[in-house]
Backbone:
């Protein structure tokens, strides 16, 4: 992908070659830190967020460190920024990577795609072109499958967010944006230092795996929750569709009214021509003024896009869970003595 | 003032009582006319000479001017020179205009001026009304009279208040005059003069009145000459007086009063008694409240009205020289036409008009002038009564009663004289009042309209009465009268019209029906007599009593079967082909449905409702009809309930009940809302159904909630595993939720609490408690035949509890014994078997019956939650797909195709029935 001339990248740091990040490499310690942060601070559906620090090497974003954002500091955003700056400054003084490359967020069953999320990341990606967002799902992880996903916004969305009338049905249609164009998932790789690898090699000798969580056959509950959430999403999507439908109907109705008005105006003008009076104006503005037709307020399509993306993600998740469950079931079947 | 009293005393040497009354009177007069005059009196008598002069130069100059004009006018009045009167009237106006600044300073119009205006008006009107005198007038005079009359009326409007107060309290003039007198004369002189004047003025006053009185008919023949003498004398005297002193304006009323009083008190001549204007005055209730002196004016007619002889009446009506024997039909009719032409005029008072009509009637009957005249006059009397009743307010009950009596008399006359033609077809000029010689009495009028008005007025009377008072019950007795009247009119019309005017007959029939449909028939009463007795003992409030009185009436007046009657009447209306019958037909049908439903003829009622297709067009009907529709619907629902058709009952009542506006929809009470204007509220008030026709709202709600409970509880139990379920009855759920929110749940008290408590019991499977709660509800007593209803209820509760039990616990059991179930719910095994079978057939219960062991084998194949959810999700997605498709169509096919195609999301199979019962929304906006 060519380097995107993403709008408003003024704040970008003068790094050598600005290249599109294609993959994300995570340091093991970052993963552990995130998990720790989430376990200690986050509970249930409460989200935790933090800052990612790293460096871009070619097309790979190497994330080498992270630190949490303080909780409940949303009242004063300046304080948060101050805190962030201070931490980064301190990191510099101890001579580790201090370049901010994105942020992370925990999620509850992957229901993180929202307007706030989008806006937050738009800010990041405008300031720091290569920045990514890491989504960590504690619930999945606790069931034995580490779930860490890295996302970036597509350039289309970025341009659209900057446009004057974002996400009207027309502009969305023109930009040919569909829900899958909102987020790009980047492959994540985990990297451990040699020393860590050695340690891990040594570990199985002394300890056993704590549980058989990986082989648990019951995935009903997770599925149930997912389906429940999916249902809610579908409902809101339905609402959006309904809104669009109403809008379209209004538009066509108004077009009809406008036609009628024009027709009348034309007749009137013909009559006026005969009597020698000056004709009435036929321009759009005049019509709008006189016919008291108010322009229909177009519905925002961003929500629909986001919900679509959310549904998509959820479906992926469900099929993952179901796939795993199937595999396990076949395994169990094979193990059963006939 | 006291000095004036002294003179007063000397004047009226004879009557001590009047002098006793004196102080009060003057006090009263001063009180009413304001301090201006009174204080002036004092000022004049006490103040310095110089000051008086100043005042005089400013004020009295103008006033003198006025007085002189007044005087001139008075003189021309005497000689009936109308043209001169007119010119002096104009001069008077001009002079007054000049004096206006002075008048404004004084703060009130000078009393003599008001008096003049009043007298002038009386004079003109008197002359105008007296035809004989009018004819005698010369042509220019007659012409002048017409213009003068108009001018005076117009001009006097400005002084309406003053004239009114003057008429009420003529003594003012005396004060004024007295003040004026004090101005110039010594006290002694004045006293003497007073005496003299009094003499004079009495004459003048009488003379005036003779002039003023229509036709001068007031005075009896015997006194007539006297009067004339007086007249002449008065004129003479007056001219003398006026020549001697200009300011002394004749007609001092106070002094006149003394004389009059003396006259009446002692001699009791009939002179003033018979003065029509005096009689008229007596009718003004205001005057009765006036001072004692007014009594002098009043006592007369009071005494007189009882004593009015035939002769007097005749004179009053026709003028002086009419002899009893002379009275004939033409005269009466002529006078009647004269009176009737005044109908609707603001100046004419209803009571006086009616009284005159009554006199006419008396005269007519005394002279036996035939049915025609009497009929005509009676009809006029009734019509005028209705003329004066307003739309918004009810008539007085007494007035209504008299009116109905008259109507009944009219009917009797019509019944007795079948030859008389009384209909709208007779034109004004075709009326004939004489009988015999092949002539038929023909009178214009419409008995049906009169009856309808009387009926409407009756309803208004009831509407304006507090429904919970004994007064209401008393007034309700009028219903009997109305019913019998309607019956009689119906019989009369049937007899008269035969089949020539079916629409007229339809109108009377619908009246009859509307008085019939809400009443419980006699036969049902007999069967429910035991219940009635119980109700009586229970002493259960007005509602019960209300019904009883009604039913008692019914028992008396409706021995025949009301069903038969109803069928007969409605059939006629349905068969009536003439146009413009839509409303009557609709109403008849609704009444019949109501009647059927009330008498537990469920199938007839339902069939009629369904076949009539009323529900389709009821939105376009007028509001009263919509109300009737709602009433019928509710009654139908209650009937369904009594028959155990729980679902039908629920569906029928749902629309009225669930809106929360049942009061408004049935027009059984006003809901105060701010968005209504006063006008709207008035209109709404007029629409209210009288209390005795009310459907008991609590009973209705109870029926509705109970039906909802019987349907909803098993359904809730069955649907508990599914994610989200449909709600059958919103208001029931509302009650349920409200109850669950309560922090502390005590034993049930109200009807709603009972139903809710029963619901909880049923959900637990405790059907006995449930039954007890439901049967404890008091409103069931209002059902006429309540025992079968209660039995039905108990049975339904058992059944539904059984179903609820099976639904709730089916997961826990593998097998259920039918015997055990029948024991638990005290139902016969057969019944349990049929209920379970029905559930299995409807796929509500996944089970099978094992006949040999008589058990239910339950199949545990209930979908788990995930499966349920998936199904739901699939549903949602399909809806989403539908929406999307619609969107596509819109994009591709343009707007036209979408508008014609409204996707019917038929939610459940009952919607059809419900839409059929869709209530006519009556909105007042």
Residues:
């Amino acid at each position: 992908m060519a380097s995107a001339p993403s709008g408003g990248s003024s704040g970008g740091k003068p790094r050598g070659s600005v290249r599109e990040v294609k993959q994300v490499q995570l340091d093991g310690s970052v993963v552990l830190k995130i998990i720790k942060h989430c376990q200690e601070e986050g509970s249930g559906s409460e989200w935790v967020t933090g800052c990612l620090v790293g460096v871009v090497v070619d097309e790979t974003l190497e994330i080498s460190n992270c630190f949490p954002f303080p909780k409940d500091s949303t009242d004063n955003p300046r304080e948060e920024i101050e805190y962030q700056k201070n931490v980064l400054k301190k990191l510099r003084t101890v001579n580790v990577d201090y370049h901010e490359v994105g942020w992370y967020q925990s999620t509850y069953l992957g229901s993180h795609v929202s307007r706030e999320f989008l806006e937050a990341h738009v800010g990041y990606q405008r300031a720091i072109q290569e920045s990514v967002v890491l989504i960590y799902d504690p619930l999945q992880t606790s069931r034995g499958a580490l779930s860490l996903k890295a996302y970036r916004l597509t350039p289309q969305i970025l341009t659209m967010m900057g446009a004057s009338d974002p996400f009207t049905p027309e502009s969305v249609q023109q930009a040919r944006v569909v829900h899958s164009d909102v987020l790009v998932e980047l492959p994540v790789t985990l990297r451990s230092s040699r020393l860590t690898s050695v340690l891990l090699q040594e570990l199985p000798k002394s300890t056993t795996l704590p549980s058989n969580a990986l082989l648990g056959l019951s995935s009903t509950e997770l599925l149930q929750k997912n389906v429940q959430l999916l249902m809610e999403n579908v409902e809101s999507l339905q609402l959006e569709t309904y809104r669009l439908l109403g809008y379209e109907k209004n538009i066509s109705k108004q077009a009809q009214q406008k036609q009628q008005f024009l027709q009348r105006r034309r007749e009137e003008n013909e009559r006026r021509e005969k009597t020698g009076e000056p004709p009435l104006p036929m321009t759009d503005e005049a019509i709008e003024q006189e016919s008291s037709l108010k322009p229909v307020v177009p519905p925002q399509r961003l929500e629909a896009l986001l919900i679509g993306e959310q549904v998509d993600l959820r479906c992926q998740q469900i099929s993952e869970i179901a796939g795993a469950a199937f595999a396990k079931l076949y395994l169990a079947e094979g193990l059963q003595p006939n | 003032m006291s000095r004036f009293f002294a003179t007063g005393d000397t004047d009226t040497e004879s009557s001590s009582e009047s002098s006793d009354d004196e102080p009060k009177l003057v006090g009263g007069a001063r009180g009413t006319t304001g301090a201006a005059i009174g204080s002036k009196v004092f000022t004049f008598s006490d103040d310095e000479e110089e000051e008086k002069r100043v005042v005089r130069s400013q004020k009295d100059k103008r006033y003198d001017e006025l007085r002189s004009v007044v005087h001139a006018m008075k003189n021309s009045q005497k000689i009936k020179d109308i043209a001169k009167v007119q010119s002096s009237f104009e001069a008077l106006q001009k002079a007054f205009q000049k004096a206006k600044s002075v008048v404004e300073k004084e703060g009130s119009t000078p009393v003599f001026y008001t008096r003049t205006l009043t007298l002038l008006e009386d004079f003109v009107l008197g002359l105008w009304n007296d035809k004989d005198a009018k004819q005698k007038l010369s042509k220019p005079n007659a012409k002048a009279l017409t213009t003068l009359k108009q001018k005076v009326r117009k001009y006097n409007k400005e002084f309406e208040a003053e004239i009114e107060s003057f008429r009420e309290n003529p003594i003012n003039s005396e004060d004024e005059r007295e003040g004026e007198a004090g101005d110039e004369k010594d006290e002694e002189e004045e006293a003497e003069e007073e005496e003299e004047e009094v003499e004079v003025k009495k004459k003048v006053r009488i003379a005036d009145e003779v002039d003023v009185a229509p036709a001068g008919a007031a005075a009896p023949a015997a006194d007539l000459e006297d009067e004339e003498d007086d007249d002449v004398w008065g004129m003479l005297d007056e001219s003398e007086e006026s020549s001697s002193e200009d300011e002394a304006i004749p007609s001092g009323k106070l002094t006149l009063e003394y004389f009059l009083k003396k006259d009446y008190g002692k001699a009791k001549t009939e002179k003033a008694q018979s003065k029509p204007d005096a009689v008229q005055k007596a009718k003004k209730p205001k005057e009765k409240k006036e001072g004692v002196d007014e009594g002098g004016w009043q006592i007369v007619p009071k005494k007189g009205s009882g004593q009015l002889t035939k002769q007097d009446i005749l004179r009053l009506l026709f003028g002086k020289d009419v002899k009893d024997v002379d009275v004939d039909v033409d005269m009466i009719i002529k006078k009647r036409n004269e009176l009737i032409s005044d109908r609707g005029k603001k100046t004419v008072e209803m009571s006086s008009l009616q009284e005159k009509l009554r006199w006419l009637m008396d005269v007519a009957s005394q002279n036996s002038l035939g049915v025609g005249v009497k009929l005509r006059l009676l009809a006029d009397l009734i019509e005028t009564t209705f003329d004066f009743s307003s739309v918004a307010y009810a008539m007085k009950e007494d007035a209504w009663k008299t009116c109905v009596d008259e109507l009944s008399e009219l009917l009797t006359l019509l019944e007795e004289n079948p030859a008389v033609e009384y209909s709208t077809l007779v034109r004004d000029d075709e009326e004939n009042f004489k009988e015999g010689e092949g002539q038929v009495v023909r009178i214009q009028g419409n008995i049906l309209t009169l009856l309808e008005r009387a009926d409407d007025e009756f309803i208004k009377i009831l509407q304006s009465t507090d429904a919970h008072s004994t007064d209401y019950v008393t007034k309700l007795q009028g219903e009997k009268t109305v019913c019998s009247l309607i019956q009689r009119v119906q019989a009369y019309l049937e007899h008269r019209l035969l089949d020539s005017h079916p629409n007229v007959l339809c109108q009377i029939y619908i009246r009859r029906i509307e008085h019939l449909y809400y009443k419980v028939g006699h036969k049902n009463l007999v069967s429910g007599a035991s219940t009635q007795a119980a109700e009586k003992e229970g002493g259960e409030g007005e509602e019960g009593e209300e019904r009883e009185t009604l039913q008692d009436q019914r028992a008396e007046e409706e021995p025949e079967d009301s069903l038969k009657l109803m069928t007969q009447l409605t059939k006629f209306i349905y068969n009536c082909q003439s146009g413009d019958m839509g409303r009557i037909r609709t109403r008849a049908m609704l009444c019949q449905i109501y009647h059927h439903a009330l008498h537990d003829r469920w199938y007839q009622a339902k069939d009629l409702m369904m076949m009539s297709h009323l529900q389709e067009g009821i939105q376009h009907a007028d509001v009263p009809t919509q109300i009737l529709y709602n009433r019928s619907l509710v009654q139908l629902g209650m009937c369904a309930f009594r028959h155990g058709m729980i679902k039908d009952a629920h569906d029928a009542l749902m629309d009225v009940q669930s809106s929360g506006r049942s009061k408004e929809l049935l027009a059984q009470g006003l809901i105060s809302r701010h968005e209504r204007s006063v006008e709207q509220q008035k209109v709404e008030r007029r629409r209210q159904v009288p209390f005795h026709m009310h459907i008991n709202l609590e009973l209705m709600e109870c029926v509705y909630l109970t039906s909802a409970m019987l349907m909803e509880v098993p359904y809730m139990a069955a649907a508990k595993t599914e994610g989200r379920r449909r709600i059958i009855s919103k208001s029931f759920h509302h009650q349920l939720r409200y109850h669950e929110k309560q922090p502390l749940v005590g034993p049930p008290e109200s009807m709603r609490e009972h139903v809710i408590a029963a619901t909880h019991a049923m959900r637990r499977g405790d059907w006995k408690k449930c039954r007890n709660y439901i049967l404890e509800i008091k409103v069931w007593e209002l059902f006429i035949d309540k025992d079968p209803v209660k039995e039905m209820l108990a049975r339904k509760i058992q059944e539904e509890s059984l179903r609820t039990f099976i639904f709730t616990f089916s997961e826990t059991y593998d097998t259920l014994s039918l015997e055990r179930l029948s024991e638990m719910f005290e139902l016969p095994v057969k019944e349990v078997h049929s209920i379970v079978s029905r559930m299995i057939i409807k796929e509500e219960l996944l089970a099978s019956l094992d006949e040999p062991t008589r058990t239910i084998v339950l199949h545990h194949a209930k979908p788990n939650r995930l499966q349920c959810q998936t199904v739901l999700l699939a549903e949602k997605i399909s809806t989403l797909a539908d929406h999307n498709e619609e969107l596509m169509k819109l994009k591709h096919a343009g707007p036209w195709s979408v508008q014609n195609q409204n996707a019917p999301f038929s939610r459940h199979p009952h919607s059809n029935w419900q839409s059929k019962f869709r209530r006519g929304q009556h909105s007042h906006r």
